[in-house]
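To close the chapter, one final illustration. This time we ask the reader to focus less on the individual chains and more on the assembly as a whole: which components sit near each other, and how the overall shape emerges from the parts.
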Amino acid sequence: MKFPIALLAATTLAVTAKPDGAQLFTTNCSACHLLDQMVVGPSLVEIRGLYNGKPDDFVKWSVEPQKKRPDAIEMPSMVHVGEEGLRAIYEHVMSISKGAEEQEQQTGDPFADSPVQVKRPQVQRIFMPDSGPAAIAVALDDGLSLCWDAGECRFRYSWNGGFIDGFPYWKGNGSRLAKILGNIRYVEEDSPFPDSGQHKFYGYRMEDGLPIFKYSLGDRKFTEKVLPMENGGGFTRSFTVSPPPSAPLELDFPSDQKVDFSSDKGTWTGSKLKLSPAEAAAFTINISFK
Amino acid sequence: MKSRFLCLILGPTLSASAWTENFTFEKIPNPTGIDSQVGAMDTLKDGRIAVAFHRGEVMFYDPSSSSWSLFASGLQEPLGMLVDDDGSILVMQRAELTRLRDTDGDGVADEYETVFDDFGMTGNYHEFAYGPARDKEGNLYIVLGIASNGAPMAEEIRGEFSEIGRANREEMTNRATWGKNKGKAGRMYSRAPWRGWVLKLSPDGSKMEPFASGFRSPNGIGFDAEGRLLITDNQGDWRPTSPLYDVKKDRFYGHPASLVWTKDWDGRDPLAIESGELDKMQEPPAGFFPQGELANSPTWPVVVPEGALPESMVGQTLIGEMNQPNLVRVLDDEVDEVYQTALVAMFDGSPLGKGNNRIAFGKDGSIYVGKTHLSWAGETGIMRIKWNGESFPAIEKIKAIPGGFALRFTEEIDPETLSTIAVESNTYKYHKAYGSPKVDLQQMEVRGANLLSDGRTVMLDLGGLKEGYLHAIDMTGVRSADGKPLLGKKAWYQVVKAP
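The assembled structure is written out below.
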């Protein structure tokens, strides 16, 4: 294809225009700084309060930012924008924030009363305290809740008095844990089952709003269903083991907890339960708060 | 207040646009009581739109009744979804790929089956998980984000801890001393398995193959119409501006943190390797989204189906964008079998807004755009965009040719306006610092802009293309034969290979 003679008399020149503060702001700042509310970084209203009349300080901070706010991340250095560009951004920010007012900060969880949040029972995967990161929180009923760790395939702890406040996690990008509402009543530091090497999580099946966890420990597949006792007095854990063990199964529950253990099968010695192979195929443990 | 902000910030950069002449933009009603940040979307066989929200609800929107129903709940930060032929739904959440199944036919999922969870988690907030994308053989691809030194690791992690790195495990987990140690961690880190990797899973999830490494915050994975695995990533350290990759097996895509999980890795701290050495190892992006102009945080790629856009755009890839108020349309090209792209804004200057995280298509061709922010800039809810079926002037295809580009438009072009086309080129610096300014920004000489006899193809003579450079083709002044400006006025073509 033959091209006609140049239509545009443009030469190969480096582009050197005066920095456009608005454009530079859009490129470098607008993802994190809104006019009148804090998102990732402080609002322009707040920045105006800090830096109005102090362009040198503004440039200095932008080139060498530090972590100042405990709940915010540190800004990356804007050194690549260059001093002239940063001064243009300063002018732009001071100009558009003039006369603007900070929006009132919203406090508390605006969705705390949503039908999904208040439903009982409820299952919610979220980062939980004192658990591995693949945690599952379960509200068994209005009062009793538990944390189950899908990464380790084991029950972690239960509490009563409420469920979780997930807002610290949900309000941002997940850098905070959910809060437990209520009091911890029972904790297992380890799985009660003998160490069988590998474990694998298969998920859960919902039955009447509650999960039946499925996992394997070694070569055996387990299901575990937790139900609340009436009157908030504790909970029951029903297990199936498939195939059933070939030798008696010994479960070692914590001895330092303020609970009473009982079961529909097997023999207890303190907090240890011994089940025959036939009994171990399906059994229920009762854990009552003292 | 928000609209005032948009007006103030963006007002000067917007010019009159005709998107609203060809498309309607309508916010669909949010479900009651739900935090309407959208993490994943797909379309059910019956035409309802499946949406996964920030707090883990999976809900179906029925366009015929504008109503919502709850299918599942309690997932953790779902960021990808695939509706399967049998009606079950694959959802990627933080800890696992999950299959949701309604086994008793009551319209609500009762089976939450773990399809794959054999990857590490340090508990760091930035370890988002994305996918799945499915290839023609049914294999699934997921991609795992790496951690940010905005926070340390949790004390308890899932999976093996990599000892490689300047900070030891105690330093990586101690919140009290994090301010002092975070610099040693690297801006972004991969201390648990497969963070920063694409993993290929067998159709049932039982087998996993580490597929490709080098990702940072890859909030977009999908196959294009030609079967290429496209992944977007976000500007940051080792990401001069946000890239688009055509991902192939066993290749490395630029962010070094994930290299520690490479088979037979030599034990070096990848964050201490010179950028020159890493540069030789990395695959070049097939496209670059210039920061602040086109996209700061590009999102999910989807293929345009029949009826959503003009026929000439069917089969093209559309990508969402969080921080600029537009989507991005991908114009494919290939030079010597190297895939490279020009990227064009879609719906810029329209009522679309920001936070465009996920895209799904209705049976009637409606484009549903799900929004989020996760405390970064963005919005919430879902915008439904409907094309009126009429043609509009736009760039359809850009082909690299010896000396320049062949531009094909959707409509006949006024040759008198071609002299206004201007082209700039720039490259970027690949380094550990956050982002990069444009490097070697040059105005290119447009030696000719010649309209072919079809009336809609323009041969643009630039006297040569520059490999490794982003070519910004500004067509703001171009008009159709009947005097209309283009919708999508600028295209950014990344020349990986010049013909």
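Chain B touches chain A through 89 residues (CB under 8 Å). The longest helix of chain B spans residues 2-10. With these observations in hand, you are ready for the problems at the end of the chapter.
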